[in-house]
Amino acid sequence: MTITGTHTDAVKTLSDGDAEVLATSFSAILDAREQGKDLKVFCPYVSMDDFVLAGADGVDTAGQLFEPSTRVGVDSPGGAGAIVLNALLSGIGEPRDVHEIPNPRIIESANARTKAWATGQLDATVIHDTQFDAARSTVNRPVLIATLYDNAPGFIKVAQAAGRTGSHRTENWPRGTVPPHCGR
Fold first, then answer.
1. Are 70 and 123 in contact (CB under 8 A)?
2. pTM
3. How do the pLDDT tens digits run along the chain, 184 residues long?
4. Contacting residues for 86 by C-beta, under 8 A, at least 6 apart
């Protein structure tokens, strides 16, 4: 088993042939497929834990993310944090998207975003609910602006994937389908 620091590194590990099966964000798998990687998705799941849009210092609405002074922590475009933030924005009826945020701070991992939020370097960010709970006591006026569970409950956060020839168990599954025995 190989543990990587980012979803991008996980996909690269599979693509380089250093792994046969991958567990990572669903968005990272979709992004890799859009880049031409021949991956099959199986066993996607929802609600492993919850992601939240956390605010601080008076940032308590999604609309404030689009103000030039609001420092928003998110990962690079196409990363899980950016995809989750888009799902949250859509789920609460915000018509704008991550790419329209004027003051993004690219921080690739939820752990690093939590630390930056907890130390006052960010006004809003996307982190796990457990990270929000652990850091909230150090944050000036912490608030949950949105949660995947409440605002985007059908969002598929994580899935397994394998190269089309990387695993005999996935050999005959149609591209992008979930096998009937998954999760049993």
1. yes
2. 0.68
3. 777 777 777 778 888 888 888 777 777 777 777 778 887 777 665 555 688 999 999 999 999 999 999 999 998 876 778 888 998 999 999 999 999 999 999 998 899 999 999 999 999 999 999 999 999 999 999 999 999 888 887 776 555 666 655 444 444 444 444 444 344 3
4. 97, 98
Q: Which residue has the tokens 């020839």?
A: 165
Q: Hey, what amino acid is at 92? A: I
| Interacting residues of 108 by C-beta distance below 8 A, sequence separation 6+ | 5, 6, 8, 75, 76, 79
Assigned token pair, 155 = 């969002």
Tokens of 36: 């031409």
Amino acid identity, residue 37? Answer: K
Q: CA–CA separation, 2 vs 21, rounded Å?
A: 10
Widest pairwise Cα distance in the chain? 53
Please state the three-class secondary structure of 69-129 as a single string: CCCEEECCCCCHHHHHHHHHHHHCCCCCCHHHCCCEEECCCHHHHHHHHHCCCCCEEEEEH
Contact 24, 128 (CB under 8 A): no
